[in-house]
Structures are given as C-alpha cells and as structure tokens.
Specification:
CATH architecture of one domain: 3-Layer(aba) Sandwich
Largest sheet: 7 strands, parallel
Number of helices: 11
Shape: globular
Bound molecules: uridine-diphosphate-N-acetylglucosamine
Distance between the termini: 48 Å
Structural class: alpha/beta
CATH topology of one domain: Rossmann fold
CATH class of one domain: Alpha Beta
Strand order of the largest sheet: 3-2-1-4-5-6-11
Order of helices and strands: EHEHEHEHHEHEEHEEEHEEHEHH
Length: 339
C-alpha cells in the first residue's frame, strides 16, 4: 500500500504552481501551499478550492524567511517539496539583476538548508529551457550544453541547477523540470495567469489584445531563419506542465539513492509566433489586430524540446493541443474581464 505524499508547494498561487496544486490534489496528494502573493492574488487559492472542493492549507510566506519556513517544517512532515517561488520576467531581471539573484537563488539556498535540517530530501525544481540559450541542435535534448544566459533571469536558472546538482550529493533526490513555453489556463477558467501590468509573454498579450485591453499585438521580427520568419517556440498547456509534476513526485519516490536529474518539459512541436496568432484567430473567431515590429533583444530564434527522456522516465504525455490551449487562455481572459 502506498502512503499519501504530503507535498509542500512554494509559489503555489502562481501560474504553474496553482495548476500543479490542482493536479496534485486530484491525484490524491496532501498539499500545503506557501506564497508571498507578491506576483499573485488570494483569489487563485479560492479558484483552486472551487475546482478541487478542498480547503487549501495556505501560508502567506516568503521563501527567504528561514525562520517562518523552519516553523512550518517543524509543524508538518513533508514528503517532498516543489519549488516554484521565483521571479520570471526577463525584462525585469535586466533592470533589477540583484533582486533576481536574491529572490531566485537566495530562496533556493534557504529552502535547501531548511529541508536538510528537517530531513526532507525530495525536491522538484522549476527550471526553464532558457538554460540552453540558442541551442546548436533542435529539437534540443538534455545533453545540450548551457550557453551564456541571455538575461539575469536565465542565469538564475542555470546557477540554481548547478547548485542543485552539487548539493544533491548531500542526500537529496532532485528533479529539475526545464519548462518550454507554458500557455493556457485550467479548462474551468477558475485559475490562470495573472500578468502584472503590460504582459511580456506572447499569449497574455494576444488575449488582452482580443479583449481590447491592448490596441494591437506587435510580432517581434519576421526576418528570422524560420518557415515564416517569426520565432519558433514549444507552447505547452499549463495543465500538462502541472501533470508532469505529479509524475515527477512518483519518479523521485521510486529512487533509492540521492540523485540529480533534469528533464525537458515541452511538447516536442515547434510553432511559430505567426502560426500561433493565426491559430488563435481560427479557434476563437476573433480578428486580432497585429503588426510586425522589430526583433526583441535577447530572443532566441528557434527552440523546441526533444521530450523523449520525460516520456520514457515518467510515462507522461501531453493531453491538450495548441488550439485547446489557446481557447482555455481566452476563456480565462474573458472571465477576468467579465466579457
Ligand atoms: C522566455 C524564456 C522562458 C521563460 C520566459 C519567462 C526562452 C527561449 N524562453 O520565454 O524560458 O520562462 O521567457 O517569461 O528564452 N512575442 C511577440 N510579441 C509579444 C510577446 C512575445 O512577438 O508581444 C514573441 C517573442 O518575441 C517570442 C515569442 O513571442 O518569440 C514568445 O515570447 P514569450 O512569451 O515572451 O516567451 P519566451 O521569450 O520564449
């Protein structure tokens, strides 16, 4: 008989975190959420409660606060931790690199230290395909070397992975998941992404333009060496990303020794920015106001995953396609705007 996991989810009110909490609860796990709500809102926790019919054990807490974390770990016997709590804006990281290192790297170190003290050894870490930069080979697999990071944000993910690889030898069992481009929202439209101010990411910009919150979408560049000249990415439904974390917990549970392993978490399908925009118009029937603008500094031309390793190790597959992902993103935007 398997025991119930008690999973601590840091950043559980965030975009990927909240969807993961839903999947964890639906798979029968006990979950505790910490989040400082600096980049999210309590209504996301309420959305999770409505979807799952479960009261969430929520703690408004900062992961840099070692004392508060120690207290929480003393009061609970966590079986594993999923660490989402981090800043993720590429632009902001260029303007405020120190706050990115402090928050993203600092909180990981505090968390590892607290975990060690309380003998909690299993960790799933949120990494990013940004660690690869522009890879030499596409689809990119996990053996590709890290290139110089394009931003302090990317650099924090590289540094965190390196720390984890080294620290794992102290008895930890660690999986890093390198996310490609998570998009969409829970099919219920009760939780989704809450971008702060003007969105940097493509899909929130698309849905806000469709909702007439933004006048027009600018496509950053049409002179790349791709089929239609726009950049190519691997867009993956956020609930599929979330589901992989449940499998990651199972995977870690099965290992007898300490280890560190990184996995690509993408669909394996490259989609161009223009293709995505056209797909959005096709599935929603909305004519999107868009134009072509200059390239955005720091963008890689083309990146998509080779997801073979995660397929084999986790027995995980995606459930949603691009059209469903975009429809769910639009349903969420409409709910946010009362459209
Ligand atoms: C990047 C990182 C990703 C990170 C994410 C966090 C890479 C390959 N990916 O994603 O790891 O987690 O930032 O924010 O480095 N675009 C437009 N118009 C817009 C917005 C975006 O054309 O208004 C284009 C971009 O130029 C890009 C694509 O859409 O080609 C996707 O952009 P975005 O959603 O910001 O994600 P990435 O930059 O790929």
């Amino acid at each position: 008989m398997s025991t119930i996991n008690h999973v601590l989810v840091t950043g559980g009110a965030g975009y990927i975190g909240s969807h993961t909490v839903v999947e964890l609860i639906e798979a029968g796990n006990k979950v505790t959420v910490v989040d400082n709500l600096s980049r999210s809102e309590y209504k996301i926790i309420e959305g999770i409660e409505t979807i799952t019919g479960t009261k969430i054990d929520f703690h408004k807490m900062d992961c840099l606060d070692a004392e508060a974390l120690h207290k929480l770990f003393s009061q609970n016997k966590f079986s594993s931790v999923i660490h989402f709590a981090a800043f993720k804006s590429v632009n902001e990281s260029v303007a405020k690199p120190l706050s990115y290192y402090k928050n993203n790297v600092g909180s990981l170190i505090v968390l590892l230290d607290v975990m060690k003290t309380h003998d909690v050894k299993d960790l799933i870490f949120s990494s990013s395909c940004t660690v690869y930069g522009q890879p030499d080979q596409i689809p990119v697999d996990e053996s590709a070397p890290f290139k110089k990071a394009e931003s302090p944000y990317g650099s924090t993910k590289q540094v965190c992975e390196q720390i984890l690889e080294e620290v794992a030898t102290e008895g930890f069992r660690v999986v890093s998941l390198r996310y490609f481009n998570p998009i969409g929202a829970h099919p219920s439209a009760l939780i989704g992404e809450l971008p702060i101010g003007v969105p940097n990411n493509l899909v929130p910009y698309v849905t806000q333009t469709a909702a007439e919150v933004r006048k027009a979408l600018t496509i950053f560049g049409n002179d790349y060496n791709t089929s239609d000249g726009s950049c190519v990415r691997d867009f993956i439904h956020v609930s599929d990303v979330a589901g992989a974390h449940v499998k990651a917990i199972d995977y870690v549970n099965k290992q007898s020794k300490s280890f560190y392993e990184a996995f690509n978490l993408g669909t394996g399908i490259g989609v161009s920015v223009l293709e995505l925009v056209k797909k959005f118009m096709a599935v929603t029937g909305i004519r999107l106001n868009y134009s072509i603008g200059p390239r955005r500094p720091g963008d890689v031309e083309k990146v998509y995953a080779n997801p073979e390793k995660i397929h084999k190790a986790f027995g995980w597959q995606t459930k949603y396609d691009l059209g469903q992902s975009l429809l769910h993103a639009w349903e969420w935007e409409k709910k946010l705007r009362d459209i």
